[in-house]
Input
Amino acid sequence: MPEDDLVDLTTSWEYTLYIPNDLRAVTVSRRTLRLILTMHGLIRLVDTAELLATELVSNAVRHTKGPAALRVRWSAGVLRIGAWDTDPEPPGEPALFAEAEEGRGLALVRACADLWGWQPLAGDGNRGKYVWCDLAAV
Output
């Protein structure tokens, strides 16, 4: 039976991986995401999801000084991948690939995800932002 046949569209789940401000956390996040999606029968989303998570987590680690987190949520046939960091400033506008040295990561997210966005976070003594993107499974 193909692994995608094991996907249960009615079940929701969520994982959060808290990571230090260390570039090695990008690889740890990517490998953890691959394992999560494989175990949930979403192997056909792995390559794109890894690319998106790499860009989001890389930005969170490179452009902030505090800890970060990778959040992966499955609900109603949509995979949401997000990165939390401690900087409340909005992410920069996605750059055009040919025109920028930096900022191409969000352009890649915009090009590969079905939807993306960000939101500031504040409460319970926490502050920062959450940058997310969605991949529809169907």
Q: What stands out?
A: The first helix runs from residue 24 to 39. The first strand starts at residue 13 and ends at 19.
